Amino acid sequence: MSGGSGPLPYSMRDVGAGGAYNNAKFRHRSRLKMFVQSLATNSNKYRCGKFTVGKFLSLLMVSGLLYLFLHKSPEGFVPSEVHGKDVHNNNVRRAPNIRTFWRKPPRLPPRLSPNEIYKNNSLLQQSPSEWTSRQKKVKEAFEHAWSGYRNYAMGYDELMPLSHRGTDGLGGLGATIVDSLDTAIIMGADDVVSEASKWIEENLMKRISEKGQVNLFETTIRVLGGLLSAYHLSGGDHAGSGDSGIPASYKKANPERLLEVSKDLADRLMLAFTSSPTAIPLSDVILRDRTAHAAPDGLSSTSEASTLQLEFSYLSRVSGDPKYDTEAMKVLEHMRTLPKVEGLVPIYINPSSGQFSGENIRLGSRGDSYYEYLLKVWIQQAENRDSSLKYLFEMYTEAMKGVKHLLVRKTVPNELVFVGELPFGRNGDFSPKMDHLVCFLPGTLALGATKGITKKKALESNLLTDEDIENLQLAEDLAKTCVEMYFVTSTGLAPEIAYFHIEGNSEGGPDGGNKSNKYVNDIIIKPLDRHNLLRPETVESLFVLHRITEDPKYREWGWQIFEAFEKYTKVDSGGYSSLDDVTSIPPHRRDKMETFFLGETLKYLYLLFDESNTLPLDKYVFNTEAHPLPVMRSVEQASHSV
């Protein structure tokens, strides 16, 4: 009970020896009875000869009873209304009955404290909450984005919302359609589900057989990941689809067709693995010819080669064919054997030699999802966490120690925590540069600390180590910095890249334009880095941190970001546009709506405002394109999961 509540309706003498309340002590008592008892108790003080006050009162009571008996109504002392009889003569005056005097008042419980009153009121049916209303706004934004794509770019990879046309920059597989399908299922956007699934069923298989070059990584995370997630959420995986929390009434796609298309696409992508002389896959595949080749410089991005396993492993589970999982997992098994810098790795790897190339270490582009998938693949394959895949969590743990030791710094003057880069390895100079892409890390750190359950539950169950608590604090500190990258600009939207003022570093540059922001002197935004591509990483981390910490500030921050997207990137004719410069108002728009705005950014915002724990983080793992896939447990583990 809070200290601000009123005085308790009882004193300690009202509580019995056993510490329990006696409700009789709170029963209201007849005022007449209390008055009579009071006079009787003090009657010795008011004697008048031999005829005492007590005797007088007794005589008065007998006279009253005699009066009531003589004036008793034919129906007795109980009023006729109680028996369901009407009183036809309103002029008839009823005498008071005996129960009027001797009626016992109802028992009343002790008064409730304000906290108890709030708890009781929460059980009553409430009007839709503010967050439900805000979640609806996100759904409306998704439908607005889809309307622009459907009207001007249906079948193309991406929408150009200003010029009202489509463009194919991802291989021509209708990437926006596949990326959006599971978002539409989650939101209950039934019209979008119908339109997207119809296009996939009628066109995608043909597109796959006719199209040319695609990037292995982008096609796997967006198209294969999107197909498999929609397959699961549409009931294809009967073993676990009931855990999603998505209402059964929401429209779904045809899971059999989705799986058929997934296998056809994956069989062609497998050429990147089987055509390589090492365990590291080639970067590009010619779908039509079923051939694969390396990038022009012969190198693959470390993140791209190591961000395929969630999708291929799940496909093996649902198709019954182990080949997909076998080839994909060879990559991580091989990387396990390579030399590292305190668990950190360079951003390039050579598929011809199987060795890392160069010394550039960063958690931004080309490095980011390597660290993400070390953890998420370990989480996804729950049945092997303590056996064959234990090494993945060990690699993740070592890498996070390396991040804290080599890459984490604080700004001046206000000590924002950020993650920098080592462009020339551990012996080179530190760069205070952080891509927006790095803002995936707060969510990953939080997920690694609690494994998807709430912080409260993890603490109550004594599941958090000192290192887990430290990583969770780092996650919250980094999330604060990622959000300030938004709030420090004139538009309230983050740049693609930020630099930070640190002690002893003389590198300067322009600020974000919002002079009222406390951190305007901590963050530098260079002219070539001012663009915003509608990226999801910050709201992804806000979603995960809110689920784990249950701190409402993450929702508030997410809402402010959403409002800025609505204000500056929404195109009236449909769709949303990237921006060229977030530091100027009005910002110049870039004619492009990335597929991940529908597949990731709006999905994470929708789930951030969700009140029903849809897609719980201990039962689902999101691939790096925000496509949720179920945690794969053995039959025994599934029977014991909560």
UniProtKB/TrEMBL annotation:
Residues the record marks as active site: E218 (proton donor), D368, E496 (proton donor), E537
Database matches in SUPFAM superfamilies: Seven-hairpin glycosidases
Record key words, sorted: Calcium, Disulfide bond, Glycosidase, Hydrolase, Metal-binding
Presence of keyword Disulfide bond: yes
Annotated Gene Ontology cellular component terms: endomembrane system
The enzyme's E.C. designation: 3.2.1.-
InterPro entries: 6hp_glycosidase-like_sf, Glyco_hydro_47, Glycosyl_Hydrolase_47, Seven-hairpin_glycosidases
Catalyses which reaction(s): N(4)-(alpha-D-Man-(1->2)-alpha-D-Man-(1->2)-alpha-D-Man-(1->3)-[alpha-D-Man-(1->3)-[alpha-D-Man-(1->2)-alpha-D-Man-(1->6)]-alpha-D-Man-(1->6)]-beta-D-Man-(1->4)-beta-D-GlcNAc-(1->4)-beta-D-GlcNAc)-L-asparaginyl-[protein] (N-glucan mannose isomer 8A1,2,3B1,3) + 3 H2O = N(4)-(alpha-D-Man-(1->3)-[alpha-D-Man-(1->3)-[alpha-D-Man-(1->6)]-alpha-D-Man-(1->6)]-beta-D-Man-(1->4)-beta-D-GlcNAc-(1->4)-beta-D-GlcNAc)-L-asparaginyl-[protein] (N-glucan mannose isomer 5A1,2) + 3 beta-D-mannose; N(4)-(alpha-D-Man-(1->2)-alpha-D-Man-(1->2)-alpha-D-Man-(1->3)-[alpha-D-Man-(1->2)-alpha-D-Man-(1->3)-[alpha-D-Man-(1->2)-alpha-D-Man-(1->6)]-alpha-D-Man-(1->6)]-beta-D-Man-(1->4)-beta-D-GlcNAc-(1->4)-beta-D-GlcNAc)-L-asparaginyl-[protein] (N-glucan mannose isomer 9A1,2,3B1,2,3) + 4 H2O = N(4)-(alpha-D-Man-(1->3)-[alpha-D-Man-(1->3)-[alpha-D-Man-(1->6)]-alpha-D-Man-(1->6)]-beta-D-Man-(1->4)-beta-D-GlcNAc-(1->4)-beta-D-GlcNAc)-L-asparaginyl-[protein] (N-glucan mannose isomer 5A1,2) + 4 beta-D-mannose
Cofactor(s) recorded in Swiss-Prot or TrEMBL: Ca(2+)
Residues noted as binding Ca(2+) in the record, renumbered to the chain: T624
One Pfam family cited in the UniProt record for this chain: Glyco_hydro_47
One GO MF term: mannosyl-oligosaccharide 1,2-alpha-mannosidase activity
SS bond list: C439-C482
Name the UniProt record assigns to this protein: alpha-1,2-Mannosidase
Organism: Urochloa decumbens
Native organism taxonomy: Eukaryota, Viridiplantae, Streptophyta, Embryophyta, Tracheophyta
